[in-house]
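Customer escalation, tier 2.

The customer says the design service returned an amino acid string that "doesn't look like it belongs to this structure." They asked us to rerun it and document both sides in this ticket. The original C-alpha cells are below, unchanged.
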C-alpha cells in the first residue's frame, strides 16, 4: 500500500482550472540515490535503481511489493530486454543482467581509460537502442568528462554530446524524431533538444529547449508525455516541471523531497507519474523524511508514452 505524503490543488497555467494532484509514497524505504525508473508494459512493473547502493529495484504497484537485486557496483540506468533480463549501464560499462540468477555478462566499457567515471542516466530509444550518459563521480562534478553513449549491435559503443559535467535527462518524442538530454551542473543546468534519425540512431541539430536557471532546481532525469511535453525532475528544487515542445514552462508540481531525480509515467493507463529521489546526506533532515523514497503522482490529467525494451 502507498503512504500518502501530501495532497494539493495545482493550477494548470494553460487550462486555467484547479486540478487535484495527489503525491503518494509508493516505496517508503529510502534509496541513497534513487534513479532510472522505467515502466515495462509487459511486466506491469516499475524498474528503477539505487545508483550508490548498487541495487536494481522492481516495484509492483498491484501488490506494493518492491524487490531489490544487488548488482555489485553503482548502477546508472537499466532497460528491460526483449530476450529476457536487463541491459545495465554501470560503473564499469555495459552489461546484460539476469536479476533472478544474478548472472551478468560484460559487453563493453567505453570509458575504461577514464578512472572515476561512471554511467548515469539513460534508456532505450523507440527503436530499442540503449543509450546511457556518463559523468565523473566526485560529488558535484568539476570536470567535463561525461558524454552519452549508444550501445551498438556489434558490441561497440558510439559517443555523442561531449563534453558534459553530468549527463542527464535522456528522453524521446513519441515519434522518435526528437531526442532530449540535459546537463545538471550548476554552471550549465540546461535541457537540449536534437533532431533524431530513428533509422540510424543519430542525433543532430542540438538546440536549447529550456534554461533551468529560470526556475528553482537543476534538471535531472526526464520523460515525455503523450502530448509531446517534456517532464524534468528539478534536483534541489522540491518540484518537477513540464516543458512544452517549443520550450515554454507549462506547469510545476511540488514534491515532498528537495532532490527528485527522475520522473516516469506508469500504471495500466500510463497516468501515474513515478518519481525517484535521493537520500544521500539527508538521512537526518526532519524537513524531508521521505527523501530517497519512490513517489507516485496521480491526478495530473496527462498520460505517458510506452517505453521500448532493449532490442539486442
Amino acid at each position: 500500500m502507498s503512504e500518502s505524503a501530501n495532497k494539493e490543488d495545482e493550477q494548470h497555467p494553460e487550462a486555467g482550472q484547479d486540478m487535484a494532484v495527489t503525491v503518494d509514497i509508493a516505496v517508503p524505504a529510502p534509496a541513497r540515490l534513487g534513479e532510472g525508473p522505467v515502466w515495462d508494459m509487459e511486466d506491469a512493473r516499475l524498474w528503477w535503481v539505487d545508483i550508490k547502493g548498487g541495487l536494481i529495484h522492481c516495484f509492483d504497484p498491484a501488490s506494493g511489493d518492491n524487490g531489490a537485486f544487488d548488482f555489485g557496483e553503482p548502477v546508472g540506468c537499466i532497460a528491460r530486454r526483449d530476450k529476457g533480463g536487463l541491459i545495465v549501464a554501470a560503473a564499469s560499462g555495459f552489461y546484460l543482467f539476469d536479476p533472478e540468477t544474478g548472472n551478468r555478462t560484460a559487453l563493453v566499457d567505453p570509458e575504461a581509460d577514464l578512472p572515476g567515471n561512471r554511467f548515469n542516466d539513460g534508456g532505450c530509444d523507440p527503436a530499442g537502442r540503449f543509450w546511457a550518459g556518463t559523468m565523473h563521480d566526485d560529488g558535484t562534478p568539476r570536470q567535463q568528462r561525461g558524454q552519452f553513449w549508444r550501445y551498438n549491435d556489434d558490441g561497440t559503443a558510439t559517443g555523442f554530446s561531449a563534453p558534459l559535467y553530468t549527463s542527464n535527462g535522456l528522453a524521446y518524442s513519441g515519434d522518435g524524431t526528437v531526442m532530449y538530454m540535459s546537463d545538471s551542473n550548476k554552471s550549465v543546468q540546461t535541457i537540449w533538444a536534437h533532431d533524431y534519425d530513428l533509422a540510424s540512431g543519430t542525433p543532430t541539430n542540438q538546440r536549447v529547449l529550456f534554461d533551468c536557471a529560470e526556475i528553482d532546481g537543476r534538471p535531472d532525469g526526464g520523460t515525455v508525455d503523450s502530448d509531446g511535453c517534456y517532464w524534468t525532475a528539478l534536483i534541489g528544487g522540491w518540484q518537477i516541471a513540464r516543458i512544452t515542445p517549443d520550450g515554454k514552462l507549462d506547469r510545476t508540481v511540488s514534491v515532498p523531497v528537495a532532490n527528485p531525480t527522475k520522473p516516469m509515467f506508469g500504471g495500466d493507463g500510463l497516468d501515474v507519474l513515478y518519481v525517484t529521489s535521493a537520500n544521500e546526506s539527508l538521512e537526518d533532515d526532519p524537513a524531508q523524511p521521505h527523501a530517497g523514497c519512490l513517489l507516485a503522482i496521480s491526478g495530473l490529467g496527462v498520460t505517458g508514452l510506452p517505453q521500448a525494451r532493449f532490442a539486442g
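Tier 2 assessment: The sequence is consistent with the input. The chain has no helices and 25 strands. The longest strand covers residues 18-27. Sent an explanation to the customer and offered a walkthrough call.
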